Amino acid sequence: MDIKDLINNGWARHDKESEALAKDLEANVALAETPAHVGAFMQLANHTIGGHLTDWPRAAALAERVMQGRADAHELAAPYSNLAVAQYMAGKQADALANELHSVRLTDMEPISMMVRTRVLIAAALIEAGRLDEAVPMYDAALQTARSRDEKLACDQALAMTSNNIASELSEKETRTEAEDDLMLKAAKAARDFWVKCGTWENEERADYLLAIVHNRLNQPDKALEFAAHALEVISKHGEEVVDEAFINLAMAKSFTLKDDRPAYDKVMARAQELADDFNDEGLKTWFAETKAKVEWK
After folding, report:
1. Rounded CA gap, 194 and 190, in Å?
2. Residue 116: left (phi > 0), alpha (psi -120 to 50), or beta?
3. Cβ distance 288 to 248 under 8 Å?
4. CB count, 10 Å around CB of 19?
5. What's the rounded Cα separation, in Å, for the pair 92 and 60?
6. How far apart are CA 104 and CA 69, in angstroms?
7. Is pTM, for the whole model, over 0.70?
8. The Cα angle at residue 224 between residues 222 and 230, in degrees rounded to 5
9. pLDDT class for 98, splitting at 50, 70, 90?
10. Rounded-to-integer distance, Cα 73 and Cα 211, Å
């Protein structure tokens, strides 16, 4: 096994074989030789052991082993940030703060960006653990700090991606509290704001699609249709994105179900299926069929 096999295969099986992957990671720390290896290794380890297995002390112990004895390099700024996340979640707050400062010291980006990155990753981990009372103030502070700067920051992408993941995961829950609903919408809006700032037109239309899903989950179909329409407008303006357009039409179908508008539902559902008929990838076909089943008229 080499580091590429460990990481690439690890992401492919991390959700269904979390414990087996955790043991493989613990047994193969020596494969993480370069700073780039370390970063990829720790990201996978934190996500699998801390996130899926909810064993942050174990994740922190592994992260500490990976970082032990490393010579300073600016490429290790993100790994020190990831170490700080694992230690914070494991209850080792003093160590976490120290390693956050190491990440700031080593980074070749704006120091504030590295701090925001660490804090928003901790907030996301707290949210995943159901600790919203702790997570939301930290998440809000990270957003406020980044938004206080007009220029593009290196942390903008981390904020966009993490906010997207927070909103997506909350939208998939069968039931949510009022606080989770508020956070879901806040995160979806933040994802769009930061993708517009640092991303591509595809990022923008996908952020609109996420907002359509979120507003449907909040039983706000008119708002959902606004964002879906804007997503389709962005696609039309810049080119073609058949897969995204198909799923956007499924989101619109859900909106028309909520509005009890069967003719409009039939129209967008037919368009979604027409686009999906040209899919070649079996995994994509399965994903479409599963998503379509969730929005069928009942």
Report:
1. 6
2. alpha
3. no
4. 12
5. 9
6. 18
7. yes
8. 105
9. very high
10. 39
SS3 275: helix
**Which among 213, 218, 273, 199 has a CA at the least distance from the CA of 242?**
273
* Cβ partners under 8 Å of residue 87, min gap 6: 60, 63, 64, 93, 95, 96, 99
pLDDT of residue 24: 96
Task: Measure CA 176 to chain center.
Answer: 18
Residue 51 main-chain phi, psi, to 5 deg:
-75, -60
Average pLDDT of the chain is 96
Report which of 52, 116, 44 is spatially closest to residue 79, judged by C-alpha positions.
44
The terminus-to-terminus CA distance of the chain in angstroms comes to 50
Residue 65 tokens, joined:
């082993």
In DSSP notation, 14-57 reads: TTTSHHHHHHHHHHTGGG--SHHHHHHHHHHHIIIIIIIS--HH
Inter-residue contact 204 to 234 (CB < 8 Å): yes
Radius of gyration over every alpha carbon of the chain, rounded to an integer in angstroms: 21
Q: Where do the domains of the chain lie, and which CATH numbers do they carry?
A: 201-298 (1.25.40)
pLDDT tens track for 138-179 = 999 999 999 998 888 999 999 999 999 999 999 999 999 999
What is the four-CA torsion angle of 37, 85, 159, 284, rounded to 10 degrees? 60
Residues near 289 by beta carbon (within 8 Å), at least 6 away in sequence: none
Residue 256 to residue 16: CA distance in whole angstroms: 35
Torsion of CA 24, 29, 31, 33, to 10 degrees: 160
